[in-house]
Amino acid sequence: MDLKMKLSKALLLLLFSSNLFSAEIDESVKIKVKHPITKTQEETMYQSGIKSISYIGNLNYYIVGDKDSVDAYLKDSNILSYKLDISDEKLDSDLFKTGNGIEEFSMSDNIKITLLLFETMDKDEITEYLQKASINATVSSVNEELRSATIYIIRDDLKRLSKLSKIEYIQKRFSIGSKNAKTRDYEGVNKVSKEFSLKGEGMSVAVVDGGMVRANHVEFQNGSNKRVYDIGDYDFADHATHVAGIIGAKGVKKKAKGMAPNSTIYSFSFYDGAFADMSVDIYNKYDILFSNHSYGYNEKSKLGTYDAEAVKEDRAIYQNPYMNIFIAAGNDGLDSSYPSYGKIKGPANAKNVLTIGALNLNASGKANFSSNGPVKDGRIKPELCARGEGIYSTFSQNNSDYMWMNGTSMATPAATGMSLLLAQAYKSVSGGYDIRHDILTSVLIQSAKDVSREGPDYDTGYGMIDIKGAVDLVETINSNSPKVYINKVSYNKSVDFPFELKNSGEFKATISWVDPASSPSSSVSLVNDLDLELVSSNGKVYYPYTLNPKNPTQLAKQDRANHVDNIEQIYVKNLPSGSYRLRVKGSVVVNSSQDFALASNISLTKKSNILTLQPSKLRNFAKVIQLSIR
């Protein structure tokens, strides 16, 4: 290289550095601490110039601030170690892969990516930020609430993008597709419909799918009142119509009757937005708290991975804890190119969604096509299952069309529809409150029927939804023997539920909490680590279930604390009579406190504190916007 070329290259590098510097007066650093950063410490850090503090698990944080403020903070005695350049942790490995369903590429390709951001920015602010860094990108969409954006960028610019302090994570956008491959009787729907008159009245649900539900189908008619609304201008879709029928077909044909036949269904297309982006949009615009997502990544990628889309799901529900998102586990169980375990992709690995697997025709075990867990950090997925083989439901070829279908796509709306019934029952006993996600989860898990190996497993989670058992639990809330509770716990504190067991017998308790989002770069996605334990008067400790991801077929054990799941369950087949304390410990809580919900098979107090909850902002959406859409 001659002297002239060397000087030209040096000049270009100098220009790039000056441009990058003009956009970047801040830096992002990873720290590991001895103890979680307290609220008071956070406030002090913000006052001293730190602009962003993000916990990512294992007592690791990302912090962003100007160089002087960061340098000063790195001398804090709570810091064990730090890493100054974290750009390598921001780049998802699939950005530079070829093969395995991911297309060949050149570095000059213009690709579509998802950005996670350390701070809230709007579209204009992101565009200006990238322009100042001399990064040529087109900002397609922004979700300020989820601190995320979708952009088009030259692949060769990705490493420069990762150097920017406000960028938390960069991931390729994957294509998505629908998940195809006597449910009411198996899951107890007919019993609760008859005993408690639960049919979904007043409940609304969003079906997000690859097209519109055929709203004029005979199964969706209710005189002059519409029950299905298509929010979009896409063609009718067989898959979407089948899914909607499983939730809410009224039963013109008895074998096609849905779980919640009097519910109101709103149909959205994932071409307008998918996963958390769509769920948040639906919630913010229409106040719909339940959404069904029977679709997922087409590519063989993000298997068992807590990816950027999973992070967005967790952010969405943590910020809106009355949202309930149901996602299909996927149908890759028979694909020999996949591993035996850990087949669930991306968004379905979020902590705060309910991922639904499919059971076989007689609901005796996992359907052979149903994808299984675990998540790479060992978390249990799917959480729950419903029958997904031989499902008869509405189809979209004409207004009286039906079809038999298989898939986790069919199991998921069954779970969604049954949960609408549970939410309806909860409203009735709680004075009109909407059900919070952690309460819904703890009740469904507590009441589920084990259908596979004893205890939870990576094939069927905690088992098949038993909606009759779930409603029975909720019905105790307003009684003198409640079995469902809420509370909160702080770091290094505990909440005890003392009780006296007069006669020996079965004991079972489940806790669930809506956990803050972690980072795709972290090896453990759990942020707030609560630990459930049962302590006898003589000091014996009973632990919750744990599974071994290195030996996924091994039976669940109860010999240690669970440090990976945000759902924990203790089960004792024959607990001796005596005095006990059911304890919830805040082993790691990085914010001031963590709310949790608890369900038990015995009453632990004389009055449930659930009735102290304030109702959410939900109004009767069907009556409010009926005239504004077609």
Would you write up a description of this structure?
It contains 15 helices and 29 strands. It is globular. Helix 1 runs antiparallel to helix 5, helix 10 runs parallel beside helix 11 and helix 13 crosses helix 14. It has 630 residues and is α+β, with helices and mostly antiparallel strands. It starts with a helix and ends in a 6-residue tail after the last helix. The strands form eight sheets. The protein has a seven-stranded parallel sheet with strand order 13-14-10-15-17-18-19, sandwiched between helices. Strands 2-3-1-4 form a four-stranded antiparallel sheet. Strands 6-7-5-8 form a four-stranded antiparallel sheet, with helices on both faces. It folds into four domains: 63 residues, Alpha-Beta Plaits, CATH 3.30.70.980; 70 residues, Peptidase S8 propeptide/proteinase inhibitor I9 (Alpha-Beta Plaits, 2-Layer Sandwich); 298 residues, Peptidase S8/S53 domain (Rossmann fold); 129 residues, Jelly Rolls (Sandwich), CATH 2.60.120. 23% of the residues lie in helices and 27% in strands.
Q: Could you give the topology of this structure?
A:
Blueprint: H1 3-23, E1 26-33, H2 39-47, E2 50-57, E3 60-66, H3 67-73, E4 79-83, H4 87-90, E5 110-117, H5 123-132, E6 137-143, E7 148-154, H6 158-162, E8 167-172, E9 176-178, H7 183-186, H8 189-196, E10 204-209, E11 221-222, E12 225-226, E13 228-230, H9 238-248, E14 264-269, H10 275-286, E15 290-293, E16 295-297, H11 308-319, E17 324-328, E18 354-359, E19 384-387, E20 391-395, E21 401-405, H12 408-429, H13 437-447, H14 467-474, E22 484-489, E23 494-501, E24 505-512, E25 529-536, E26 541-542, E27 567-575, E28 578-588, E29 594-600, H15 621-624
Parallel strand pairs: 10-14, 10-15, 13-14, 15-17, 17-18, 18-19
Antiparallel strand pairs: 1-3, 1-4, 2-3, 5-7, 5-8, 6-7, 9-16, 11-12, 20-21, 22-29, 23-28, 24-27, 24-29, 25-26, 25-28
